[in-house]
Every structure is written in structure tokens, then in C-alpha cells.
Amino acid sequence: MLLDRARARRYTGSDVLYGFSFDRFGWWRFTQLALNIGDEVAGQNAYLDGMNSTFDSAGERLSVSLRALQALSSSGAGGHMCILFVFAFLFLFLIYLLLTKRI
Q: Is the pTM of this model over 0.85?
């Protein structure tokens, strides 16, 4: 109740309006709804900002990995990398078959 009066004073300049007129016309409910929506929007914006920084850091790591792969492929070790990828794929496929008991 005290918090509601403080919010009413902050948004209306007076807590006298907190009484009968708010309850009579339902303005106080709309004010509370607007305040709750504002709090929810602020929380969601903070969450989205956190997601944005997470995606930025993941994008940076991916670009670093791609640059390292490009440097590796340009150094002449492309044939070895191809054999390594084929071996890894076949090994993981064999594990998949063993776990699903299709052999």
C-alpha cells in the first residue's frame, strides 16, 4: 500500500489522487497495469541485451575458428584434413550404428 502511494506520488505529483477517484474510475488499475508492463518490458530488454552479447561472442569465436581453418587449408595440409574428417565421420557413424543396434 505504501509502495502504491509512492508510485502515485511519483507519477501524479500527489498522493491525494490515490483515494476515491482512482478506485471510482478505475484509473489506478490502469496505472498499475502500465507500471507492470513497463517493468516487464525493462526485464525483457535486459534479457535480450544479454542474449545479444552472447551471440556476439559466439560469432567472434566462430570467425576465429574459420580463420584458423582457412590458414590450415592454405598451408598445404588440406589432404590430411580431408582424411581426418572422413575418419571422424565414419567413426561417429559406426558408434551410431552400434548404439542403435542396426549391425
A: no
